[in-house]
Amino acid sequence: MKEYTNFAKKLFMTPINLNKPLCFFDLESTGTNIVKDRIVEISILKLLPNQNKEIKTWLVNPEIPIPAVVTAIHGIKDEDVAEHPTFKELSSKITQFIKGCDLAGYNSNRFDIPMLAEEMLRADQEFDLKNVHCIDVQTIFHKKEKRTLEAAYKFYCNKDLTDAHSAEADTNATYEVLEGQLTKYDDLQNDVKWLAEFSKHKEFADFAGFIRFDEEGKEVFSFGKHKGKLVEEVLDKEPGYFGWIQNADFPRYTKKVLTAIKLRQFNS
Question: What are the two backbone dihedrals, phi and then psi, of residue 248, each rounded to the nearest 5 degrees?
Fold first, then answer.
């Protein structure tokens, strides 16, 4: 019976159990600096609880040059995006499309979500993941097999990712890989909240990882001279540190989180 079950798993992917829509997304950008670089392409596949899917892909004018070394990776040139909308012009559409959804991506917790948050805040769009579960398919893969997206696609789906670094191809591949992971590993719970927890690295207060939570759930800095120190204590003893971060090249969401901590401290 067990052999039959394993054989059946190879024939049919395990559908993802959903209580609300899950948006798989992938970004292509001008580089990997969350503060300075910009999105040039975004693709979002919305998976509904009834397993119906809707996908939207936008080319984005980053309003800054795309370095040739980056174009060599994703193939998008300045002229390809020159006549397309800026992210600010697209931001309300993107916000509406992902509203009320959980999120999933490949290396999304470390790159795509921080980058998306930065662009959203730059476009004056509210972006808060307080009630959103975020699944990082790469983390699940690395905990299980430790490979790239192309290798994951081959390993779990037995397919070649022939159009890698195209946002839409990577988005579809990420969705199929998660189904493949649920099919292959019996110990993975088919539950968005559980998968989001499993695919976390550490518990961060911001998206970029400059402020994390300690074992008691209190915010501590995770970088620099105050690494490991409580944020509230640092702001109390060294008020100028807050101003330095606000005026330096830190992500907007990190500054937003720091401001919220300072206001909370002031109100209490």
Answer: -95, 175
Q: Which of 169, 198, 227 lies at the terminal end of a domain, its last residue?
A: 198
Nearest to 118 by CA among 44, 47, 29, 21: 29
Q: What are 220-266's pLDDT values in tens digits? A: 999 999 999 999 999 999 999 999 999 999 999 999 999 999 998 88
Full domain range(s) for residue 250: 211-267
Burial (Cβ within 10 Å: 0-12, 13-18, ≥19) of residue 157: middle
Is 203 contained in some domain?
no
Model-level pTM?
Answer: 0.74
Regarding whether 223 and 181 lie in a shared domain, the answer is no
Phi-psi region of 43 (alpha: psi -120 to 50; beta: other; left: phi over 0): beta
Tokens, residue 189: 């719970």
Structure tokens at 15: 């559908």
Long-range contacts of 232-241 (CB under 8 A, 24+ apart): 232/261, 232/265, 235/261, 235/262, 235/265, 236/265
